[in-house]
Specification:
The protein has 453 residues and is α/β, with parallel strands linked by helices. Helix content is 56%, strand content 12%. It folds into three domains: 6-114 and 253-341, P-loop containing nucleotide triphosphate hydrolases (Rossmann fold); 120-139 and 147-242, no CATH class; 347-440, Orthogonal Bundle (Helicase, Ruva Protein, domain 3). The protein has 19 helices and eleven strands. It has a five-stranded parallel β-sheet with strand order 2-5-8-1-9, with helices on both faces. A two-stranded antiparallel sheet has the order 3-4. A hairpin with a 2-residue loop joins strand 6 and strand 7.
Length: 453
Amino acid sequence: MDGLTPQRIVQELDRYIIGQADAKRGIAVAIRNRYRRQQLTEPMRDEVTPKNVLMIGPTGVGKTEIARRIAKLIDAPFIKVEATKFTEVGYVGRDVESIIRDLMESTVNRIQEQRQRDVQERAEGLATERLIAYLCPSGAPKGAKVAAATARTETSRLKRQRKRVAEQLAAQKIEEQLVEIEVDADEPFAPVVEIDGGMSAEDMQETFHEFVASVSANRRRTRSVTVRDARKILVEQEAEKLIDWEQVVDGAKERVEQAGIVFIDEIDKVANGRSELHGADISREGVQRDLLPIVEGSTVQTRYGAVKTDHILFVAAGAFHHSKPSDLLPELQGRFPLRVELQSLTPAEFERILREPENSLPRQYSALMATEDVHLEFTDDGITEIANSAVAMNDRLENIGARRLTTVVEKVLEQVSFDAPDRTGETLRIDAAYVRSRLGKLMQSDDLAKYIL
């Protein structure tokens, strides 16, 4: 994070997102302020609150992509939610605190996966040792004299057998052989202890001992599986033993509280003018009231313990076609001090979206077709024609921004994708004439375009 200056953050975003310079600058400053806060001494650090961001702009101009790329860039816990999914407490639906619970859950899973990768090599070694032990059980001698006479011979034989099995496992020569291993029980119901009010102390103690015994008995069971499956099961078991679960939870909690990012989309859908409140609108205002304490900073109870939201960065976004930011509760407006407006995309920017980003649609489809040994060549006039077609469709139908490009490109390459397995080794030019031949009827008929594009 030290090297991620605001200029560097904007440069990284420019690799994937075209235009929207003001939005990139605003989010870059908010992210850099989080790093600056970490450099402060403890008393001042607690006083500095996140500079939450409200992004205003039509659909398909990059609001969600900016937040997603930022979270990936700084490797921060990130969750995207739709404001319309939530309802006021007391109504049927999800409550807003589930945002933090879901963020904590995903972060715990992510850190656990990282720790599993860290211990993977050790876990595989330990799993192999256990697998060899299952495949080469040591036989118990039947008598003391026999054991004394054959101990050295038995030990030598067992070493040779284990060495041979280890070589076979390394060469994967016995992957389909069956072996019995111990696995965790998968009973859907855990044992239950029943304590009656009239039971004596001795009866209660006996019942408790039976309960403990049943739990121990149900925790493990023997299962016959192939060596291939046994290896996977044993690696997972050994990895779990090597991971400190408390460290995973503590690390996840620290990252969520200090670096978490919550992206709330469609915030405009829960904004209504105060004079228009009736019916479902009352619940929408209730969602705002429920969001307020979380955005302000509160403590949310999760299955992993209490999580503080004081320093989580909240990024809200909305088109605000039928409402305006001032229709939000004044208290909620005040908790989003940074406001950035994203502009509708121009035809030139549509064309840049197809040319400049590292993961542009032409590059994606070229890579997909290359797996079938079919090579696509997008000409300059072909890309221009695709961009102009997307702009025209947005003007005639609903304006969905850059998302229209995916629909248009998919329609242009529909036949190529279908015939690709039979066109191995061919090179196809996607020029303006080809694009017009694929979109001709759709561009002329609004009825067809409504349902296909």
